[in-house]
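Re: the 309-residue chain
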Amino acid sequence: MGFFLETVLGGLMAGMLYSLVALGFVLIYKASGVFNFAQGAMVLFAALAMARFAQWLPEWFGFTSPVLANVLAFIIAGALMFVVAWLVEFLVLRHLVNQEGATLLMATLGITYFLEGIGQTLFGNAIYKIDVGMPKEPVMVLESLIQGGMLINKEDLIAAGIAAAMVALLSLFFQVTSTGRALRAVADDHQAAQSIGIPLNRMWVVVWCVAGVVALVAGIIWGSKLGVQFTLSTVALRALPVVILGGLTSVPGAIAGGLIIGVGEKVSEVYLGPFVGGGIEIWFAYVLALAVLLVRPQGLFGEKIIDRI
């Protein structure tokens, strides 16, 4: 029983990290109807900025406090992501208002390659580390309730807590604030939102800034776990099935989809993997997403589209 609960808990913690990356897709799609293929590149760019500024700042200014270096690096990396968001809107999106979805998708592909290229130019292409002080040693818990206890990685637990807090804040932002409600109106109908005075360009800047902050937090967490390298941009590919499963327009769907896929990956790999030679964790999410597409194309929590003739 203890081992099963340990496996499920590990899946839930991994699922929260998937949900955090998937939120970047959902936020931008809800506000602009753009499937942002550049989300993975944004995670990579933000993580590179965080890692390199945390390394450079003590060398430039001579202080020795790693905490101060990380705080300043986070602020600078966040400001840099705001600049990226503004440039994306100013140079790309405002010129493509009401264009076809395929056109917007190709634009985000261009942004992807630009961010990867400029990131390599500015920050280098080696493997860097992000050390924000999260403990990496495992800890045994619930020994008095479960025979043998449960072994939990402290870093995974803290990372899942941070991801859950970010998800909760974003959910409140969309439901409670006037900006969040304006973003939902823009997502429903661009032209109708403009007709009642909602500034479309400003809303796009806001949502890309929020997605940039989400990418920064995700980049710090994944960079702390895996190191910052250019393969980090592929983390977005792990979040694609989450988006498909939960629905492109649903913030709760991104959360639920991440948890379902995280638990499914871990449980299937542990209990079914030995019978098929392993490797289930690699393809499980995509097969599950395909099965959901066949039954409910808009995802489990996505809005059902009804076309009237």
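The radius of gyration is 20 Å.
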